[in-house]
Amino acid sequence: MDAYEQITRNVSEVVTEAEVRALADSPDGKRAYVGYEPSGVLHIGHMLTANKLIELQEAGFEVVVLLADVHAYLNGKGTFAEIRETATRMQEQFVAYGLEESQTEFVLGSRYQLDEEYILDLHALELETSLSRAERAMAEIAGGDTATVAQAVYPLMQALDIVYLDVDLAIGGMEQRKVHMLARDTLPSIDADSPTCLHTPLIADLTTGVGKMSTSTGVSISMEDSEAEIEEKVNDAYCPPTADPDPTDEGEERENPVLQIFEYHVFPRFGEVVVERPEQYGGDLSYELYQNLEDDLESGELHPADAKGALATYLNELIAPGREKIRERTE
Ligand code: IYR
């Protein structure tokens, strides 16, 4: 696999291909970042972009993790003191999950986002941006029904972070894409470059396959889950024998979240997957490529129940070090 393929593996969108190719050609000294609103416990959504950061570290990039405390505050996630406390815990969990501590720069947003220069640049971007554009950029990120002024400032700060952290590549889930497009359009107005971006896919709701998995509305998987909870959640997951299920009777699109988790979480981190089965049911199956697992599920060679059993085992292994960290903290 060449560097470009490695960097863009499992991403839903590359902005732009030519820019990412240029970075892939000489990754040394290049900086990539993801920002996270501190929420205390890592869940499967954080882990998806973290997988990409781990791959970028392997490809030679410097990696920056922004613990976006001011953003979390602006998005109504609690008091400043609470958010800062959870940021520290989150950092420990990222390291436990597999981000190389010596090669990762963790930055608390408030370290520079309250500086005079930053605030003046923020006001310059405010002058350039209509309220409706800021609101649209936040549609997939904002909590609550009515957008606040704070939520309109939020995406402009996210755009400025790219400049102040001096990063070459911004990573985020697909829900961040409109913020990044806003950044590409408005940063030149303060004489900064338009950022290059990679967007990771969103995983479907675990129990229905409809819409995206969300910690606030549906079942999610987090580092706080016990082995038994993981097993139960995966067992109850929607897993028809296809990667491309029919829409619901109401015409809503559906996806197979079990296959998505194999593709985006398990294969990138483990490389090979073994599905254990008793001899009488054909014995163990082993896969080096995600596609072969998907094909076997479709053909009936691999039963959804066996796929789920294997998924629970691998997920459990992925989150075990982080779970251990949480346990140490609370003891
Ligand atoms: N909008 C992100 C948090 C965030 C991301 C970046 I990249 C920033 O520079 C700042 C904040 C979220 O939805 O979690």
Automatic annotation (TrEMBL):
Its main location: cytoplasm. Belongs to the class-I aminoacyl-tRNA synthetase family. TyrS type 3 subfamily. PROSITE patterns: AA_TRNA_LIGASE_I. It comes from Halobellus clavatus. L-tyrosine binds at Y33, Y154, Q158, D161, Q176. InterPro entries: aa-tRNA-synth_I_CS, aa-tRNA-synth_Ic, Rossmann-like_a/b/a_fold, Tyr-tRNA-ligase, Tyr-tRNA-ligase_3, Tyr-tRNA-ligase_arc/euk-type, Tyr-tRNA_synthase. It catalyses: tRNA(Tyr) + L-tyrosine + ATP = L-tyrosyl-tRNA(Tyr) + AMP + diphosphate + H(+). One of its GO terms (molecular function) is tyrosine-tRNA ligase activity. Catalyzes the attachment of tyrosine to tRNA(Tyr) in a two-step reaction: tyrosine is first activated by ATP to form Tyr-AMP and then transferred to the acceptor end of tRNA(Tyr). Homodimer. It comes from the Archaea. One of its GO terms (biological process) is tyrosyl-tRNA aminoacylation. Keywords: Aminoacyl-tRNA synthetase, ATP-binding, Cytoplasm, Ligase, Nucleotide-binding, Protein biosynthesis. The lineage of its organism: Archaea, Methanobacteriati, Methanobacteriota, Stenosarchaea group, Halobacteria. A motif ('HIGH' region) lies at residues 38-46. This is Tyrosine--tRNA ligase. Its EC number is 6.1.1.1.
